Amino acid sequence: MSTTKEKQIKKSEDIDWIEVNKKIDKYISEVESESDALIEVLHKVQSLLGYIPKRTQKRIAKELELAPGKISSVMSFYSHFSAKPKGKYQIAICKGTACYVKGSVDIIEKVEEVYDLNSGDTTDDGIFSLEVVRCLGACGLAPVMTVNGKAHGLLNPDKAVKILEKYKNGEM
């Protein structure tokens, strides 16, 4: 019987790497200009797998004749790209000035404690991923978090957990 996490995340051992490599070759052959190649290929692979594992980064670097460090630097610059699998619900908690002043650190600590989760990680069951971000651009709702891009504001630690429990229970 497969676990929830196995159903939601394509784990490395469950991936047909021959097919993935064929698709990467196809993506690279479709790229029109060399300067656009890397980001376009990374976007397509991220869409295909949900993340870009190290072995795939090495493959892309080899095929595009780039240093592996170039892939790492592009992936770390653009927050969209991830080298780790993401959860079904991706939480972003703002730590910008307005949110910080209004208690976002307490919210972050509570979410980390309740779900045994650190920023950049995914829960063992594959339900939640957490990112602490510098600004979500919703200062009027401070403190604010997003779940899969949907904003939830005027939070306190308990309210944040109640919202996340609704997601976990399929009520949102």
N-to-C CA distance: 26 Å
- Characterize the overall form: elongated
CATH H-level superfamily of the largest domain: Glutaredoxin
Low-confidence segments, given as residue ranges, are 1-9
Using the coordinates shown, work out and report the CATH topology of the largest domain: Glutaredoxin
| CATH class type of the largest domain | Alpha Beta
In terms of DSSP E residues, the strand content is 5-15%
Q: How many strands, which pairing sense, and closed or not: the largest β-sheet?
A: 4 strands, mixed
CATH architecture of the largest domain: 3-Layer(aba) Sandwich
Contiguous helical run count: 8
Overall pLDDT metric = 88
Count of the separate structural domains: 2
Strand order of the largest sheet: 2-1-3-4
How many E-type strands?
Answer: 4
The helix content, as a percent range, equals: 40-55%
CA gyration radius, whole angstroms:
18 Å
SS content category: alpha+beta
Order of helices and strands: HHHHHEHHEEEH
